[in-house]
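Input.
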Amino acid sequence: MLKKYLFLLLCVLMVSGIFFQSGCLSGNQDKFTKFKSYVIGENIEVNLGFSDNMEAELSDRELKDQAKDWLLLGLLYNSGLTIEEINDITFDLPTVRYGYMEPVANFEYGATRSRYIGNGAIVALIPECTGKERIDYLAHIADEHRKNLDEIPQKMYVFQYKLDLDDYFSLVTRLDDQDARLLFTPKYGYYETQIRSLDDLKKLMSQIDDLTYAQLKDSNQLILGGRKIQSRKYGTITIEDVATIWQAEVKLEQKWKEFRGELAKLYRLIPEQKRKEFEEKIPLLAEKRGLKQSIGFSLDQVFDYDNIICLIEGRWDSYAKRVMTLCPGYFQNEDLSNVSWQKVEREKATLLFEGLLLSNGFDPKDVVKRLKDKDESVLYELLAKVKSVNPEMASFLLSLFKLSRYQRARYDGRLRGTEVGMHLFYTDLLAKLWTMNFNFSTPKKSIPYFINHTEADVPKVFEEEARCLCSVRLWFGPNEDEIQLSEDKEKILFSRNISEIFAKSPDDYSYRKEFEVAAIWKRSLNWWNTHYEEVAQFEPEYERLNQILKWSTVASWLHLRQRDHLLNFLRGYTVRREFWFSDWAKNKKGLKYNEWGKINFFPKNFNGHRTETMPLLFSPTFERWGQMKNIYGGVSTLSKNRINELPGLSKNLKEVLRRPGLKRKPIVGEPGGK
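Output.
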């Protein structure tokens, strides 16, 4: 059996900038007679030499990912391509997976590896498999490169691997070359059609699981394409869900149109010298109207203002009793009714509100009035003032305020009570439960090496940052690097997965001030983003979330291109709007999380809210460095304004360099060049 000793030497040479100069890597070879040293069907044993440092720093799972990268690099270096060509092909693929390389890398995760090598050809590395599973792997790769290129690839050089990390080697076998064009035919699960009517859309949705392509052809024809997953059941959405998304987008657009019309009337009445001040207030006016740039969902943390008033007015017993309802999980190990706890905290609270409140220029009556008007900014003004005088007391005050919070569902767009709204609610809530390991629910047995926040190792050097930024707002949204617009923006192409978790760290002492997410959160959230597809295979609701994000992107894109009439037949489609999350979740079959009794949803109309409400949730191990951490957020879709800002594919780029968002810089002598 032929042995190829690779990769340690290769990595050293590549990283140090020393490259092979062998004449066998001539660029004059026939572009479609590559990999001559690989005989189809012959097993090649590849030795993997991991350094001691790599074995110490990387988990078994990370070593497998590294090994697959190296197998791909080895194939490229034995392909007959020139060093210059390989450098272009692998410009965003570092040879090692250390964390500090991530900002400049485009690492692949999962079972496959691939690279486009020019002239319509792809090198595809897949695990040992057969039949429908092999088709799915190859189709996944084909869709990815079609997205990058805005063209259907022509050919695939296919290799399969079988890893054995116990003995530090892998078997690599070349399979028959694949005509990549066939992967975009119904035989291989791809369907594409013009959508003229509801029946056309229903037929397409019965054929596909995953939306991958949309095109405006001849300006007035809508072409949609997608993929049926062959080897397993995929979490799909329904025609009712698409209608829900479309109707929500239309309603949101109508509200913005009405708002802009009212602003135009007001603007004409405002003296010219005051118009700039008025323009600066427009975002606040839109927020008061409840207008958002896109449809979505959020579990917001809101204050129980009446309970904070109890504090200010010295009604401690009423406050303590209410907190037991709002945050029951926080006191699993500390009974709020405990006499000693009440005695100490009551004395602190009395000192605070009878002393610092007045001494720092706050009139208790005015504070109470603003709280009754649900003006939360007064609380941050108070926190900032107290912090400047007595940081320890400010920290105590913040903890009292946090214990007077609860969670309320907010639906942006006409999603309340719909199945889409329930999908968004569930996926958002479950991500938080797993991230904080609520009730030890993180699925580590089903998804090995799943990293949650409570178990992520964070160096001591980040302790001060963690104390200052001890909360996180996280939300799901589309990853723009997985969405490609054609040069004329008349086509939109998707990767298999476009979903990503985004995060910001709010300053708990400032009103609506946020920073880059603290390091204490980054590792667990990055793990989610790099392993989303694996998580989604375990919980198909995340595959449904991914499809919701895709269809909403198409809806926004059609509105942007002023072609929304092409789906007008969805306006009258009947959408159910009677769902209530706690009931839906208990009755929904197949959900991976079902311990709803441990969450204690509040009854309908709690504190007058028309949407679902629930207490803050805590994990027994969720405290880090003496701080109470908060997670909140939701799901945001891509607005038409943001789509308009996305760059179209630059055909000036070499094919092998094409990625969403990349543009070639103009050179001297070209328009825009210097």
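Residues 215 and 491 are 4 Å apart (CA to CA).
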